[in-house]
Fold this sequence. Notes:
Blueprint: H1 2-11, E1 19-23, H2 25-37, E2 43-47, H3 53-67, H4 70-81, H5 88-103, H6 113-120, H7 124-131, E3 158-163, H8 170-179, E4 183-188, H9 195-198, H10 200-215
Parallel strand pairs: 1-2, 2-3, 3-4
Amino acid sequence: MEEVEQVRQALGLDHSNFYLLGHSWGGILGIEYALKYQQHLKGLIISNMMASAPAYNEYANKILMPAMDQTVLAEVKRLESAGDFQNPRYKELLIPHHYEKHALRMPADKWPDPVQRMFKHLNAKIYVPMQGPSELGASGKLVNWDRTTDLGKIAVPTLVIGARFDTMDPAHMEMMASRVQKGRYLYCPNGSHMAMYDDQQIYVDGVMQFIRDVDAGRF
Length: 219
């Protein structure tokens, strides 16, 4: 959060021109930044991130996992119980049965270059302690993170983006848009967690319209 503030200062941005878009765990960062530094923001965009890790885990347990092939889920759970997360079989199962359904809805070998590079250079020394080793829910240091009751403190114009096939609950993200003081919800009906790729037109048009409306004082 403080690094974001350092970048803002270095670029000379302020409440007249500074929009912050945080996607996934960047959405956590965006919420936390707004709760401390919203006087510097013109607008906030929370992309595909819930305001509560416990609610995210509940959604994964009650909605996402029951919808999976249960034989596959059982094998994934066995590998997780054994702590065998580096087993090639783990990703072999998750890519078609989880990632391609809820992370980015296209064949993994066709994922755009930025996504490929992100996975290739993922810093596990940071990611795993924060998120936990499982991709089916949070179990790391952020497992109890919950800002749902603080959303009403965010007074800057805020766009919350959710998607039908997301790993995150789209209904929860719609609720978030109603809890902030000046909220708008953007729903991507064909999108997943990375809706900027698999529902790109709606995602990009929605972000641009939000910025245009705030800039024009129409929000």
